[in-house]
Design a protein that fits this description.
Mean pLDDT: 77
Number of domains: 3
Strand content: under 5%
Number of strands: 0
Distance between the termini: 79 Å
Helix content: over 70%
Radius of gyration: 27 Å
Largest sheet: none
Shape: elongated
Structural class: mainly alpha
Order of helices and strands: HHHHHHHHHHHHH
Low-confidence stretches: 124-133
Length: 287
């Protein structure tokens, strides 16, 4: 990039920053005092949408009665409205906000140019933009959930969402702790066979994949609530296979196999597992 191009770039960048500030500063003056409340309302709305999706999936699976799900939706909606009302009651502007706006107006253009030519890459102006970083987005969501739960620690569904996000990042110990918290604070969650199975899976991963002990207790509880629960049957079969109870593994897996679509990948994989367990059961010594 030539010197004239650099100078032109600086002038254009400063002009763009100044134009942006003309739009940003009025909003900053009004919104600074209520920034935390607005952020909180946004996070709560996101959590509300995910919780509603979870309820709909549970109703579709038959794990939750439609009437109970409707009652839970109404309660979540009431909580969301209350949070939004609190966020809207904040003062519009403060002397501190005006001071911050002035500092931003003076410092931002200078800092932006200096930083860009210090650590930036002007020659990359024509490069393709990088793809979004999934792990970073996941980390942000976990932080948002943790912040939400610090204010509403008895939100059982919020703890479940946190546990799932942590499990997705292979943070199984943290996920197991979050599942335990969910079961502790919410009676409804503690009776959800799907959540019980997820908790058992997270605990199993902390034990090197073994489902013995506490995971086995959770699986048994899940099946006592819903004897035909798919995840419960699959995990009960895995536990039986792990313990050398091959006939029991065949029984659990065949019950699940009957509900799978023939020819599907999962049906094929489970059929292979059943055949392997049957061979082992045929040669196993009586227990």
């Amino acid at each position: 990039m030539s010197m004239s191009s650099v100078l032109l770039f600086v002038l254009v960048a400063v002009a763009l920053v100044a134009a942006a500030l003309a739009f940003i500063l009025p909003t900053l003056l009004k919104a600074r005092a209520r920034g935390d409340e607005t952020s909180r309302a946004t996070i709560n709305a996101q959590i509300y949408r995910q919780e509603v999706d979870e309820l709909q999936q549970e109703v579709a699976r038959g794990d939750l009665p439609a009437g109970e799900a409707q009652s839970m939706r109404q309660e979540m909606h009431r909580r969301l409205v209350d949070d939004a009302r609190e966020a809207g009651a904040s003062p519009a502007s403060t002397p501190r906000a005006r001071k911050v706006a002035l500092i931003v107006a003076v410092a931002l253009p200078v800092v932006a140019v200096v930083l860009y030519f210090t650590v930036g890459k002007p020659d990359a102006l024509t490069d393709d933009p990088p793809a979004p970083v999934g792990e970073a987005a996941k980390g942000d969501f976990i932080e948002q959930l943790q912040s939400h739960l610090s204010r509403q620690p008895r939100d059982g569904r919020g703890w479940v969402l946190l546990a799932r996000a942590q499990a997705d990042r292979n943070e199984f110990k943290a996920a197991a702790d979050a599942y335990q918290k969910a079961l502790t604070v919410s009676e409804r969650v503690s009776k959800d066979p799907g959540v019980l199975c997820e908790y058992a899976d997270a605990l199993g991963m902390t034990q090197g994949g073994s489902l013995a002990g506490r995971p086995a207790e959770l699986i048994a509880k899940a099946l006592s609530i819903n004897p035909a629960h798919p995840a419960g049957l699959e995990m009960a079969g895995s536990l039986a296979y792990e313990e050398g109870r091959y006939a029991d593994a065949v029984r659990y897996w065949k019950e699940l196999l009957a509900d799978l679509t023939p020819g599907s990948e999962r049906h094929s994989e489970l059929s292979t597992a059943v055949a392997r367990a049957e061979r082992k059961a045929a040669v196993a010594l009586p227990r």
